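Bumping with the actual sequence this time:
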Amino acid sequence: MPKQSNKKEKPVEELSYEEALAELESTVAALEDDASRSQLEGSIRLFERGQALAARCSVLLEAAELKVKQVVGEDVVAFEEESE
């Protein structure tokens, strides 16, 4: 299970990208765990938190992309792995 013990969870909108991603990875692992699937309410709560965490990561990535475009202009070339 993710670090969701008796302590209160930090609101998703206050998490940094790194914090949100780490918690999202932990949440996914907990949802994939056979033992956690036996409790429907807990699984639903984890799923909802996971959705909010994924949305937070997306918002933060979009904001970072906008900042990069503002610094270097709209001519940002997407990184693609070179094939040899």
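The tokens above came from a reply further down the thread. The CA atoms of residues 5 and 13 lie 20 Å apart.
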